[in-house]
Structures are given as structure tokens and as C-alpha cells.
Amino acid sequence: VGAAVSIDSFTPGVMGNGIAILMLGGLARFSAAVASVWPGGRLAPKECLFVGLAWIPKATVQAALGAAALDEVTDSGGSAE
Description:
Layout: H1 12-37, H2 45-54, H3 60-75
Helix pairs in contact: 1-2
């Protein structure tokens, strides 16, 4: 899926906005994960930070399988769009 995207068509403003959105989303996910386990007091602060870091890479499996789905569609005569 990522190989089907033409990076040359992106302007610097679009790239900056995309990176900012990804960073804000990661920060929101991290903050929500830490906030969900912190108030109970059953975990140490280091453990709470670990939970926050562990929840950041959420779509790893979907990203890995997305290319296989794109290959299947293009091999069957479909369009990558």
C-alpha cells in the first residue's frame, strides 16, 4: 500500500500537516493509555509509562497485511485506487 503512494506529489505543507497529525494522534493515544491505568494506583509509574508506550504502535498487523490485500487486487485485474 505504501509503495502505491507517489511521494513526489506531496507538497511540504501536506507532509508537515501529516506528520503533525501523526504526532498528535500518538500523543493522544499515549496520554489516554497512561491516564487509563494511572488513577488506580496498582501500577508503578514506570509500568504506566510502559503501557503508554506499548499502545502506540496499534496498526502494525494491519499495515503488514495491507500490502498483501493490494497485491491480491492488482493481480486479479483491479485498480490500485
